[in-house]
Amino acid sequence: MASHRRPKQPSRTRVTVLTTAAAAAVALSSQAANAAPSEKPSKDEVKAKVDKLYEEAEQATEKYNGAKEKQEKLQQEISTLQDNVARGQEELNELRDGLGSMASAQYRSGGIDPSLQLFLSADPDNYLDKASTLDQLSGQQVEALKKIQEKQRDLAQQRSEASEKLKDLSATRTELGNKKKEVQGKLSSAQKLLNTLTAQEKAALQQEEQRANRTSERQVLSGKTTPASGRAGAAFAAAQSKIGTPYVYGATGPSSFDCSGLTSWAYAQAGVGIPRTSQAQANYGTRISSMSQLQVGDLVFFFNDLHHVGLYAGNGQVLHAPRTGTNVRYESMSTIGGPFMFGVRV
């Protein structure tokens, strides 16, 4: 006969643990149900964050431009040094050939001088320091040896200088790559933020920007500022011809520009070569501290680190290449996003 046992009852401890776990699960479910969904950033909040990223990208862009300019300069200097070394080696070979001709003539006339023979088979650097050797050489031979020694020292110095510049070039290329990645990272983050906006929000931002552009253009056209003349006038006219051209970081025209790329290109059209970066341009000309003393065509600089530059357009407006996603345009100096620091009259 089968035995009938009562099922084993759970212990008090187990019941307590299960009850507590169930209560916690219910509480968490209740909190999740009652929690407000995370709020989507507003259009203005997104714009503020994007503007900040664009500003940081422009800071990195000017450093990228500086590294790129340094790279190009180093490449030119290295090429010049290498050409000089090649020519110097040819001259050295000619000097040695000349000394060899002396030795041949000496041999034909009765035997080669031991000191000259020793020179032709080894490095002559230490020979001129030995009076006994000098005593055995003719004046013509001594002069030839001195020229060879001098040429050898020049070549050694130029090779050493070229080697150091090559190291500097390698470091500059690394810096250039890092800055490029930094710019691209900032721009990518900005684009991701913009992608969170609806089509209506994007359209609204575009309309706001277009209204601001039209207002700035009216301010320029209705202003009583004295028109630019001379080289400043020619540079300003060149920049005006590029209104509507897109901003592209690192670009110097003529189909796209960044901020300092536009100003350097504009002055180049006026026959004036100014530096490539905004920081370098800030030291090129007469500084104008007061906004009231600015003239059309003056360079105007913004932000404490001077990473943004444009051309003064009169009536408190600037003609510039603002940032990624925009075109060359007029804009009020009060809406640049950073303080006006000073102007420079080229």
Report a brief summary of the structure.
With 346 residues, this protein is α+β, with helices and mostly antiparallel strands.
Please tell me about this protein's structure:
The chain is an alpha+beta fold. Helix content is 60%, strand content 8%. The chain is built from nine helices and six strands. It has helices at 12-34, 43-108, 114-121, 131-136, 139-194, 199-222, 230-240, 259-269, 278-281, and strands at 286-288, 299-302, 308-314, 317-320, 329-332, 340-345. It has a six-stranded antiparallel sheet with strand order 1-6-2-3-4-5. Strand 2 (299-302) and strand 3 (308-314) form a beta hairpin. The protein is elongated and about 90 Å long. The termini are far apart. Residues 12-37 and 130-134 have low confidence and may be disordered.
Instruction: Tell me the Rg in angstroms.
Output: 37 Å
Counting DSSP H or I runs of 4 or more residues, the number of helices is: 9
Number of strands: 6
Q: What is the spatial order of strands in the main beta sheet?
A: 1-6-2-3-4-5
**Mean pLDDT across all residues, rounded?**
83
Q: Report the portion of residues in β strands.
A: 5-15%
Overall, the morphology is elongated
Which regions have little confidence, pLDDT < 50, spanning 5+ residues?
A: 12-37, 130-134
Major beta-sheet overview: 6 strands, antiparallel
Euclidean distance between termini CA atoms: 115 Å
Question: What percent of the residues sit in helical stretches (DSSP H or I)?
Answer: 55-70%
Tell me the structural class. alpha+beta
Order of secondary-structure elements = HHHHHHHHHEEEEEE
